[in-house]
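User: structure tokens for GTP cyclohydrolase 1 type 2 homolog, please.
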Amino acid sequence: MANEEEYEFDEEQRGLRHVGRGPLAEKGTQAPALVGELVSALNRMFPPADAEPWDRTGLLVGDPSAKIEGVACALDPTVPAVREAAQLGANVLVTHHPAFLDAPDEFMPLSARACVPGSVVFEAARLGVALANWHTALDVSAPAQSMLPGMLRLKPSAVLEPLARDESLGYGQICAIDASEGLTLGDLSARCMAVFGRAPRVWGAMDTSLSTVCTWTGGAGDAASECVKRGIDVLVCGEVKYHAALEASQQGLCIIELGHDVSELPFARILAESCARVGVAREKITLLDQNDAWQHPETRRV
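Assistant: Done. Predicted tokens:
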């Protein structure tokens, strides 16, 4: 399984590339022609049964019997993403995050007064773009779990919160650091900056020596307290609630917060590669750029 689902950081593309053995499309795989066939194929890769009970997985908006014209992949199903997908000729938008968790009460064009998730659904229906997502089902999968360690040149050895059905899958990858490497918090922070091109928020002394690292994409939830219990040196994640980070840092845990979206933007590439793996022609797959959702203003004198 590991040989088929390995990814590493691509310096030229500043993203993830598949390094598994063999062709992406399995031998004998029939390319999905319909939206529903693509959803079923991706459900086999990221089983809905692995998702959290509160989550939404698979097709949320669209006709499963519609023919696939093109597939756009992104982190978030925003109104601009729906419009860009349509402009590119894609009638399927595959994302990590769902368009909504609680169903919207109204569906209307985007405005200051509109319910934004409802506007996303409205725009998708208006433009004929199907919305499908794999959220926590993707989070716990092998390719998602190997993503951050691969990009940061770390070697995972255990899962912090494993799934009951398979202890090799789950949330958080514990990585052991060879003492001969002499890796410090400052070194790892600089590595994160070089890989993601964004300055992370760092808790802890930069000269702290590291022997264990836990990676966790997106919101880390209770991972900080669990890392403290396990004696882990540093948690590299998307984000941690302030008070949870404050408490854990006082207990000796270093934390590197990449930004929720920054830590998960490469998931769009995993989804794109997964679409190719199940047989969608690569020329029909587009990766949307959502790196500009926010920014740090340049330091300037006033």
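User: Anything notable?

Assistant: Residues 116-127 form the longest helix (12 residues).
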